[in-house]
Amino acid sequence: MIAPDCISAYIVRYRADGPRYLLIRRCSPYLPGTWQMVSGGIEDGESAPQAAFREIREETGLEPKEIYSADAVETFYMASKDQIVFVPVFVAIVEEEEVRLSPIEHDAFEWLTFEEASKRLVWSEQKRVLKQLHQTWQPHPLFLTNHK
Predict the structure, then answer these.
(1) pTM for this one?
(2) Is the predicted pLDDT of residue 142 greater than 90, yes or no?
(3) CA–CA separation, 26 vs 109, rounded Å?
(4) Strand residues in 94-139 grouped as ranges (E)
(5) Class for the domain spanning 6-143
(6) Which among 77, 76, 80, 54 is positioned nearest to 67, based on CA atoms?
(7) Is residue 143 classed exposed, middle or buried when 0-12, 13-18 and 19+ CB atoms within 10 A define those classes?
């Protein structure tokens, strides 16, 4: 078994004209200027779903209506640790549009269509997961996480 130490959370608002995906722009020393979904570390004693819920609150101020396991894992090589990283992916459904960024980490946000978000993301693994979510993901009780 491989225990993750970080998560990715794709935040979605459903509108009449289709889903909108939240991307936030990093302003911290690590990867400044890159657009991404919510991501962050799992703290001691915390489950991955709990970490996703906490990171969403900390980085965006949003309160997810529901959080689901996305049935996806991001994998990539992290040069700074010389390790292959496996990151569980979550989908958070929100109703509100107003985002309150953590100013030490992010300086901008946008709600984007799938096509717009795909162009904005830099990393191929993020684009792959976004495409998988957009094409196949549907809310299902089996994947609803207990994040409280």
Answers:
(1) 0.91
(2) no
(3) 9
(4) 106-112
(5) alpha beta
(6) 54
(7) middle
